Amino acid sequence: MLTPTELFKCLADDTRLRCLVLLHQEKRLCVCELTYSLAMSQPKISRHLALLRQIKVVQDSREGQWVYYQINAELPAWVNEILDVIAQETNQRAHIKEDRARLQAMASRPWLNKC
What we know:
single chain, alpha+beta, Arc Repressor Mutant, subunit A, three-stranded antiparallel sheet, 3 strands
């Protein structure tokens, strides 16, 4: 079971926090969307997602060559409440706005044309 200490350790890293905010807002994203929107390398994003998956904050699914991530639907209510507050509070921060703008501008999103 996820503990508050494990969750807050994960949230203390800016890259993981940004990933979670985007996943919370978008509901489901491919690794390529996260790398594009955060302007980071695929290995770096995958490493952070693996940690989030390890503590079961996110879950993944494979569709062909693409791996999609989403917030784990079976998280305890207290975790969802924290993620709601974090997403709401960070939504107006410049780097979060830039992440969302890059994501919206991404021409080759998988659900649009299967990157």
